[in-house]
Specification:
single chain; alpha+beta; 8-stranded mixed sheet; 6-stranded antiparallel sheet; 23% strand
Amino acid sequence: MLYVYADELNMEMVFENDSPDIVDSPLEEYTVRSSHEDRKHLMEALQTWTSEHEITQTALKGLMEILNVNLGPNLPKDPRTLMKMPNSLDIISMSETEFYWHQGLENCLRRNFRNLQGACTISLNVNIDGLPLFNSSEKNFWPIQCNVFEHSHIAPMVVGIYFGHSLDFISLWKGLEYRIFLNYAPIAILKQYLPEKYFEHFLKLFCAVRICSTNRYKYVLHIARSLFQEFIAEFKVLYGEQFVTSNVHNLCHIADEVERFGVLSTLSAYPFENVLYELKKKLTTGPNPLAQIAKRLTESAYNENRPTNNPNSSGISFQQDKHRTKILFPNFRITTDHKDRWFLTKDSKLIQMVGASQENSRIKIEGKELTDKEDFFGKPFHSSFIDIYMSRTTQDCRNQVQVFQPEEVFCKLVALKYKKNSIHSIATYDKRIMLRSSKNICDVRLSIN
């Protein structure tokens, strides 16, 4: 669940001279009287700002000095005091070149379940993966992460980080790239280059994976099982039995595992990949990279507990600024930005969001329906069966704006640009393939010429 924190500093400005022309008055000619509550608000705002924007300790210290000298809020002199940093970090030396920092599983769980009433049973997914630090160094992080199987909206938690040996075996693509390609991009790309029988063969894998990716298609899990088996059997004919590796063979077990444990997202390591990327963003060049990460994570742990504005009872919230309007759902968001504006209603309407408003906690979404939708493929079944459509996104510019309630939104859509040049005519058909999105991995747009 996503919350947004906002605060304003209510300071009483008292000018030492009576001149109404405050524009030309030097900063030294007035003082700021700040109550204890104002100082607390200022410190909390600085803590949040520092954590969200990855501000260095040096930059924060310089800002605090400027504020203290010119405005007199009496902030701590040391930024570590402001950020509630412990006096020491528990970094264990395992050898001359290997170190380990442990945040602790209990600490992570206590923060995320601090409002828990009564007892509950949870299951944990644990992930360990490597993270190269710098091109000029062979040193790597190995974060230990976990998330809660029953609460997928809770972001993965970093339990500890090992720092040491290189990862020469890491390939160019990580799991996130493979996920985007398998779940969204391939039908727009491969249709242009694969012979028809090879493309139809690949569609069996694509459709089976999509069925296994959401509870919406749970009732046809048996179809996914058959598609996986057909894909493996045809793979031998098309590519040769010698290429049927264990990775290909293991596809026959996926439907059974989904039936046993839940959809693929509950078994996936992709959420952990997102955290690896965020960890690397927190790192600056220089010595002691493990200490840097440990400090940033400790700061984030402190700041994430601050109370925020509550969304409505359904877990849906509204945000608006001068650039865009956002509707935040528990597992995804739709906005007025082009890449995030597409969604599917519960009665299967394709909608382009054009605006939104909120009145008395009631959110209204304004959108235009794309009415020329059609199936993108017809085998192994019509693509609309798994909520995939093709539609011209510019054809409904004259359609009347309709108002939708958030409860009418079924899911977000990924829009893939599909451009086909006809050799028989100078006409160009510019269409987009609209795919149902799983969670919020939706920033995918491809231009195929």
